[in-house]
Amino acid sequence: MSPKEYDALLAEQAGGCAICGAISDVAKHLAVDHCHTTGAVRGILCGPCNRVLGMVGDDPARLEKAAAYLRR
User: Using alpha carbons only, how large is the chain's radius of gyration in Å?
Assistant: First the structure.
């Protein structure tokens, strides 16, 4: 991803993390998230949101179960 593509995607995301919306004053604190199978870029994430996806193996069902657990 070129710096121009990064800036355009970040602008589409209102300047923050695609998941939580956190805005970093230092761009390097935001990571380019991608599918590990296809390599396709999904968005730009803050460190904590990026790590969460990695910890659950990019499994939406596992994240949904975690959300349900937190709502109990």
Answer: 13
